[in-house]
Amino acid sequence: MQPRSHPSPPRARHPRDVPTGPLVAVVGTRYREYEIEERALVPLGARLRVCTDPEQALDATLVLAGSTPRYSADVLERMPRCRAIVRYGVGLDRIDLEAAARLGIAVHNVPDFCTEEVSGHAVAMILAFSRRLLDGARALAAGGWGLERLRPVKAAEDEVVAVIGAGRIGGRTAEKLRALGYRVVVHDALLAPHPSLEEALHGADYVTLHVPLTSATYHLLDRRRLSLLAPGAVVVNTSRGGLVDEAALVAALDSGRLRGAALDVFETEPLPSGSPLTSRPDVLLTPHVAWYSERAERTVREKAVARAVEVLGR
């Protein structure tokens, strides 16, 4: 009797965890598929495991890390096989770098994949308030017409934008804003002492943040510094949520001291549904997507995986 043939099962959408080779855990990403990772790592004999939490990757040889999970000292100490954590992105604030160094876990990131995307997102957020796009859309939806609900709208030449941080993204943001006619003041504590942060903020109509989150920059915009901005100013943050004291921001919005805020990042992510920032007409929120374009996603994944291949090949 001839053995019956069965068709091969369809290829799994996510890479399968098979019991051979070093384990590479892909943790906390929002990708639709993992062909880039599979194509580069499986030929090396690596196993791939896609998961949402570092607790599911304690036995990993290497972690490819998304932006949300935290890697505390406690977590890292329970990852005895881990040789490296490679971030899909720029920020390393969710990794205890001191603990990683002590435990011999190398930490890598991809610093140069979304400069145009994030700078463009920040500029778009400023333009949305500068040109009063949200107010105009709401007025028209309510049957309004004309200028009365939108006044005043200033010319770009009459508005000052404080750009905090002059790295790749901050520098590019400043270039784009100047090209549009805005008056731009740039502060970067690492590059020059003047203008100081307070000097840059003083009287600014907009502030856009482009610095990493560290112990020194946590709540960089607090109640006191928010009060330095021009009355009716707008806060823009596409960098890290912890740079802004959200309670102080909400208080400044409630009082009318600030006209609005445009935020892509938050102290807690995903943003809780009960956050006082949601459902406010004076706040524009996006879900940590400033970095995203099809090109940027492909680039960050390819660069992160290339670094993983390099680590595994040592």
What's the number of domains?
A: 2
What is the C-alpha radius of gyration, as a whole number of Å?
23 Å
CATH fold-level assignment of the largest domain: Rossmann fold
Spans of at least 5 consecutive residues whose pLDDT stays below 50 are 1-13
Kindly state the percentage of residues in helix: 25-40%
Gross morphology: elongated
Oligomer: single chain
Q: Please tally the β strands and state the result.
A: 11
Question: What's the CATH H-level homologous superfamily of the largest domain?
Answer: NAD(P)-binding Rossmann-like Domain
Class by alpha and beta content: alpha/beta
Q: Please count the helical segments.
A: 10
Q: Please state the second-level CATH architecture of the largest domain.
A: 3-Layer(aba) Sandwich
Provide the succession of SSEs: EHEEHEHEHHEHEHEHEHEEH
By CATH reckoning, the class of the largest domain would read Alpha Beta
Strand content range: 15-25%
